[in-house]
Amino acid sequence: MNLRQLYYFRSLAKVEHYTQAAADLSITQPSLSHAISELEKELGVYLFEKQGRNVRLTKYGRSFLEYVETALDVLEKGEKKMQKLSSPTHGVIDLAFIYTLGARFIPKVIQDFSKIEANKNISFSFSQGVTKNIIQGLKDEKYDLAFCSYVENEPDIDFIPIAEQELVVIVPKDHPLADKDSIHLKETAPYPIVFFNRESGIRPTINSLFAEANIKPKIVCEVEEDSAIAGLVSVNYGIAVMPRIAALDQYDVKILSIEEPAYKRSIYLASLKNHYLAPAVCNFRDFVITFAAENQAHSKYLL
Question: Which GO terms describe its cellular component (predicted)?
Answer without folding.
Answer: cytosol
